[in-house]
Amino acid sequence: MITISSYPGGLATIRKKLEAERVPGQPLDVKQREFTRRALVDANAHRGLIVHRVLEVYETPEIQDQIVRHVQTTRNVLRHVVDALSIAYNTAPSRKIRGASEEQAKAFADAYRDAVVDERLEQASRVCTHSNVAHVLVRWETDGPRLLVLGPHQCDVILSPDGRDDRPAIMVYATQSMGAAWVIVDSERWVWVDENWRVMLQEEHRLGVVPWVEWRSRAPVSDYWDAALGHDLAECTIDVERMAAHMRFVRTHRSQKALVFTMSEQDALPPAQSVNGESVMLQGSARMGLGVVDHEVAPENFLRDISEAVRSTYAAHGIRSTGETTLVDPDEADRLGKRRAQQLGYYARAELELARRVARLISVHGGVKIDDDLVREGFRVRFAPYVPADEPQAQVATAKEQQRMGASDPVAFFLTMHPELTGAQAWEEIEESVEITAKFTDMVTTRGLALGDGGTLQTLQQAAGRIGGQTSGAVRREARDDERDDDPTQ
What we know:
Largest sheet: 5 strands, antiparallel
Structural class: alpha+beta
Strand order of the largest sheet: 4-5-6-7-8
Shape: flat
Radius of gyration: 33 Å
Distance between the termini: 90 Å
Oligomer: single chain
Helix content: 40-55%
Strand content: 15-25%
Low-confidence stretches: 323-330
């Protein structure tokens, strides 16, 4: 893999390559501007983008100013779609390294806790949902491991100049630490440079690989960034808010009653008139006079356009909307479940690469040796099972199907709950679960205990008394029922 030092021309060539992609007079290149828009919308900080769209669509300064006053950011289509699709990390997954010693397992768990991995990966999941790829960088600071999540709007990557490797070998991102302007990192070191790309500091990380992992929820279609995917999310959000602002302007301003001045068609038109800040309407008439016109405008046309824009964008991302404000109906639960299962395949691979890098950091800086082969073979990540719908009937039907599948094919059943695992990994999990259950059962029975209702522990005497009481009650109820059947007055 190519490095900073082996790149033809070194830092000077890397800088020229990145600056050549920027539009003259613009601080960001086309790719960064595209993804910056999505980041602003996801942060609900996109009012300026809506105002700019208003200025593009409407010509006169008067109407532009009026509509801008009604701009809001309440209909955030991008956030709705991301909230619906980026759900894998809503519940933190469990992670372990099979075969690791107690010391290794503790060091690994401590590193993940100190690096706040679950929160960072929840952030990465959102970024890669609307911007296709997020880069999760790992680094050992003085107080332990740290994770940094960078979206496409925050970094650039350098591929091999010969085009033989489609994976980035060098990353560049902006920074404000230690007075530097940029950080350049490869498989060997971190390099901090100033605004003129003069090296200020270098630090070897000794990982032997690039210290970042790509987080994706789907495969790229065109190039590494695939900027066209997700473009509609930000644009729909901006245009929907523009239409909503126009609707509010019409409803609150144009709907006011207007004064009408009528005059003879043969008369010359008078100079422009105004009443209450509004231009006076002129109409040809056989006689002169004044009148009032009610401009009450129904919102149906605006709402229809807004609803259609929202619905078509949802549909493009596998979500069906039954109205302007409805995001997902119960019939789409299975479709979203399949999308989530697809995501988990990518996430599981990324989780493994992250675990390998964290383990290397621990080995280099944490004082506990964790072999890469151990992590590669033994790392397991298990995401929380997917609940397909909020409808009770759907939950009951799913539970029955899972029960049937679990009885006939436990591996297939386990994979429906955890699609991120392979068949072999699912079988390992089943064996481990059975072993734990057997140990627990043996431990309980050797102590003269049993599981009562609700999974509570009780003595065998208590369990026998409960069963006896239930049996006695059932016999008495049956006897009473027989008496009623024999009594014709009942």
